[in-house]
Structure formats: structure tokens, C-alpha cells
Amino acid sequence: MTIEVRVPQLPESVADATLVAWRKKPGDEVARDENLVDLETDKVVLEVPAPAAGVLKEIKLADGTTVTSGQILAVIEEGAAAPGAAAVPGASAPAILAAAGGAVSPAPANDAAKAAAPAADGAGKLSPAAKRVVEENKVDPKSVAGSGRDGRVSKSDVVNYLSNKGAAGAPATGTPAAGGPAPGAPAAKPPSQFVPAPSARGVRADQRVPMTRLRARIAERMVQAQSTQALLTSFNEVDLKAVNELRGRYKDQFEKQNGVKLGFMSFFAKACVEALKKFPSVNASVDGNDIVYHEYFDIGVAVSTDRGLIVPVLRDVDSLSFSDIEKSIANFAARARAGSITIEELTGGTFTITNGGVFGSLLSTPIVNSPQSAILGMHKIQDRPVVVDGQVVVRPMMYTALTYDHRIIDGREAVQFLVTVKQCLEDPARMVLGI
Known about the structure:
Chloramphenicol Acetyltransferase, 19 strands, alpha+beta, Dihydrolipoamide Transferase, CATH 2.40.50.100, single chain
């Protein structure tokens, strides 16, 4: 049974390779995984192993040929004993006859000497890639020792030569530095590649599953936002000491009276409303060549479910109490995970808040929920040293991020929006007083 030896799949950035040298000739016995031929790319030298044990029946391509992925290099007769050798592309007639076991007339002495002697200047034994590196770096080919078959110089030989010269502080041209390899001396054998045993690598399996409709819709919306809006992100940080103290003081009474815990989202939602009132472009959206300024505050709150991220909308947040906000968010989360939330509750919205901090995110750049023009990202609360009134103190700090559509929101407005949110959270009385 014959088996084809093909060029392996080349890396994405490599279009083709050069066949450097065959390690076997037709008629030779080969063992499974024994290296048959070296292929050289601009980046690495690839070895092509035998896919099965047998006899190398035929070589399809000669040294120096440019090859591409999947191209047939040779044919192996699996399990066969070594017969007479077949022809090698580009080989001389005496070589073919000798491989077949026939008689060969002796070549003239001068011709034989020329055939046996290496090229006088070494250039004839350079691979195409090595020749290019030699010319670019003005290297004397006679100074580079080849590690390939019959002393052939590969690109890696030239690169190693240049590296050794650089390490010794010597120029790349001229006579080799003292102590370096003598011309013609074999190069040091490079270390072999380490490949863990199959048992150490574990199972390497792929599983292909279709996207759920929700996941496909999320993907569609995210790509739409990235491709249709000029998105930019600004950052700030908030000291949540005042919010923590307020929650600590009233959380038990709040939960007893309202049947829901007092979380951070209600504080951020209220702070965002105050900022949206001051900077209406952050609450606006683009419709063709028009800017639509929304005079109401419908804030979407991102909720994570097993099926993906969804964004139910809190309507008229400016008129909701803290308990209304917390109850609505808790209800949204429960029904979203149960799959009973309605389409109407997921549509609309003029602004969105997402909290990656519940998963441990310290900093991120959220993507706008199109056709909205901005989204606020909350993050992990972390104790950090900060300077307050000239003293270094430890405070619960959170990074905040505002991603916005730069087509209608200027950088000044985005920064001042975040500053307003920061001021409201660091001094919650501002939200009560509306200042």
C-alpha cells in the first residue's frame, strides 16, 4: 500500500516554504516518524516525518523547490523491503544508474574533483532564505558553517552566526572572531523540541455547538455598536466610604421595612440620574442625522444569566425610591434566570449600568447597548491607600468607566458626567438635595 507524504499545514502568516534537503533517497528504508526532508520558511525550519514505516518509493520534488501546504512531496511503499532506488528529480544519469545497481563509467578526473569539492565561496550551498540574510547583512558565506546535508547553509545557521558575532562584539563581516567556530567546522547541534507525553497533555477535543438565539442576538448587537458608533471610554474612581457607612447604618432597618437588601445599584442609579440631568447628551441617541434627547430616564441594568447577559430596563428612575429600584432589580434577576422576563422589559432604555465587580473585575471598557449612546461600568470595590486632606488613608475605592458615542458626546461632557457620579456617591446628601 502506498502512502503520500505531503507538506504539513504551514502557519497562517507563512504562504510557502522551500524544500531544503532530502534526508533519504528513493529506495531507502524509512521508519515511522523518521525525518524525511527539511522545509525552510522565513521563520523556522520544519521537519517532515514519515507517516509510516516502509520504503521511500518516489520523490516528487527536488531540493530548492517552493512548496505550499498539502502539496505531495514523496510516496512511501508501506512495509516493503528496500528495492533498487528510483530516480530523483534533478539527479545526474550516473547517479540514477548507480542507485539502480548498474555499471557507471568513471567520470573525468577534473569533473569528479569539481563534483566532490564544495563551492569555493560557499554561496552555492546557501538556501534561498539564507542567501537573502547573507546579502542583507553583508556576511562572508565562507565564514558560516553549514549544518545541513553536505554542509548546506540554512537561514538558522546564518542567524546563529550573526548572534555569536554580536555576543562577541565583533562585526558581522570579515574573519570570524577568535574562539568562534572555524570555517567549515560543524555547527553545534541545536536542542531538540520538548514534547510532553500524551498522558501529560490530556484530552484535546473540540466541540461545535450552534449559538443560542440569545447569544446570537447579543453578538449582533455588540458588533453593531462597534461598527456604527465612535466609541471611547473615560475612567474615574470613587471613594465609597460614605455609601458604606450609610448602608451599614440603615441596612437592617431598610431590609426589615422593605423586604429587600439595600445594595449599591440603587445608589449608582440615582447618581446617574443626577448626572444625566446635567448632561442630556449622555441620555440621548442618534437617529439618522438627528440627535434624539430623551426627557425621561429609563436605565437598563445588566443581569447575568446562564444563557447570557440581558438588560432589563428600569422605567422613570428619577421618580423611583431606593426600595423601588432594589425590588425591581431583584425581581428582574429572578425572572431573567427563570426565563420568564418579557420582551417589553428588555426593550427601550436611554442609558445602561453594568456591574462587572460582582465577578471580580477591577477595570474594563463596557460596550454601549445600541442605540443608546453611553454605558457606565461599575467594578470591584477594593481597599486602597489614598490621600485625603494631606493624609494617607485606606478607603474602599471603585474604578468607574463610561463608554460613550463620541459622535454626540464630547470628552468634556463624559469626564464631567463621571465627576458628577463621583460627587453624588462620595456625598450622598447631594442626591437628596439635588445639588
